[in-house]
Design brief:
With 192 residues, the chain is an alpha/beta fold. It has one domain: Rossmann fold. The protein is built from six helices and eight strands, in the order E-E-E-H-E-E-H-H-H-E-H-E-H-E. A five-stranded parallel β-sheet has the order 5-6-7-3-8, sandwiched between helices. Strands 2-1-4 form a three-stranded antiparallel β-sheet, with no helix packed on it. A hairpin with a 2-residue loop joins strand 1 and strand 2. It is globular and about 50 Å long.
């Protein structure tokens, strides 16, 4: 997959978020968007997902591609367990899906957390559930909007290893405020 962004512009009223953005992004690569708050990272993701329209410009390579996302908000079903949150996105839900969901979650969470409602989990645990859920959806492109929020340094490194393993061959775009994340992800920096 190659995604080409041509002269993309977006504004809200008199506020220009970005102007004439040009990018060429390829599968098998991790791209790290960096920029100050309000520089357009989340807006760019929303345009890629079809949740927002650009004012002008075009994108090539999205047609027929499946995307998954980690939003800034976790967007989990709070009364469901982590296992239920993952199982609901696995195609062909079955007892095997529950086993698969549990195996994936155990890579990032303690076993005692898997049977509790998500509402009882810490912010960092919820973030990890949101990441596992996004990476459990069959897709070609993964968008992650500040996925490491609420994670301590050791946990972040474990999550990054998990992301790298689960996204091989896919187009991955991650927004971050930490330059060290670019190196940890073996990513390509894009400044917005």
């Amino acid at each position: 997959m190659e995604l080409k962004v041509n002269q993309l512009s977006k504004s809200f009223g008199t506020l220009n978020v970005f102007t004439q953005l040009n990018l060429s992004l390829h599968s098998g690569q991790v791209y790290c968007l960096m920029g100050s708050s309000g520089s357009g990272k989340t807006t760019f993701f929303r345009i890629l997902l079809g949740l927002e329209e650009a004012d002008s410009g075009s994108m090539e390579g999205l047609k027929g591609q499946r995307a998954s996302a980690v939003f800034q908000e976790n967007r989990l079903c709070e009364s469901f367990t982590p296992v239920d949150n993952i199982t609901m996105v696995i195609p062909g839900r079955s007892s095997r899906s529950r086993k698969q969901a549990k195996e994936e979650l155990l890579r990032l969470l303690p076993e005692e957390a898997l049977s509790r409602p998500v509402s009882t989990l810490s912010g960092g645990m919820k973030r990890r559930v949101a990441i596992v859920r996004a990476l459990s959806i069959p897709c070609d492109m993964i968008l992650m909007d500040e996925p490491f929020t609420g994670l301590d340094e050791n946990t972040k490194r474990s999550v990054i290893q998990y992301i790298k393993k689960k996204t091989r061959g896919k187009l991955v775009i991650i927004s971050t405020h930490q330059e060290e994340d670019v190196a940890l992800l073996n990513g390509t920096l894009i400044n917005l």
